[in-house]
Amino acid sequence: MEAEQVVQKILADAQAEAERIAAEADLKEADEQAKLSEQLAQYRKQTESLAKKAGEDEESHILAAARMDMARQLLAEKRKILDEVFERARRQITEMPDEPYRHLCTKLMLQAVETGDEEVIVDKNERRINHDLVHQVNQQLGPNRKGALKLADERHDLGAGFILRRGKVKTNVSLEVLLDQARKELEIELARQLFED
User: Is the separation of the CB atoms in 86 and 183 below 8 Å?
Assistant: First the structure.
């Protein structure tokens, strides 16, 4: 074999080896590319899933905040209506004609009396709750109560209503206290409605 043939043979073998290595590299690259594409697809799928979940969470938070805001606005409107209703009730009771007012106070007194020997304290300007009314209440008290109520000489700034006093124990049945109690009960109900929704 001549030297040129040997060189040709070496070059041909080197060329064949280079082609084999290039083909192997192409296969490896294609395999790596397929793996990379699969990983990218998985990452993309996870990212989309996380983005969707984050979007749903954000939407859920926004809806919850909107519901809470609407509930607060509704509660504020209900409170505003309550203010108007209680102010109207306060006016109606204080401006009530004498007989219905006395009837109401008689009923309240009969409910509030515990022993029947309490003192009845009224407002400084009260004229409708008087000795006659207290006498009528005494006559209506049942057998378990003494029927010895008396109108106190002492007077307070109560507005409408009265206070029953026996020693140091006082039962406040003034209009302000009655309306405050009714209002608290309604506000508790409103708060319960707010947080149930």
Answer: yes
Question: Under 8 Å CB-to-CB from 76, ≥6 apart: which residues?
Answer: none
Helix 175-196 / helix 3-94 crossing angle, nearest 10 deg? 160
- Tokens for 161, please give them: 């209503």
Q: Which element (helix H / strand E) includes 96?
A: none
pLDDT in tens, 10-22: 666 667 776 777 7
Task: Indicate the pTM of the whole model.
Answer: 0.56
C-alpha distances in Å from residue 63, one per residue of 14, 66, 182, 196: 71, 5, 34, 16
Distance in Å from the first CA to the final CA of the chain: 99
Q: Which residues pair with 161 in a beta bridge?
A: 174
Q: Which CATH superfamily is domain 96-185 in?
A: ATP synthase, E subunit, C-terminal (3.30.2320.30)
Task: Give residue limits of the domains in the chain.
Answer: 1-69, 96-185
Count CB-CB contacts under 10 A for residue 1: 7
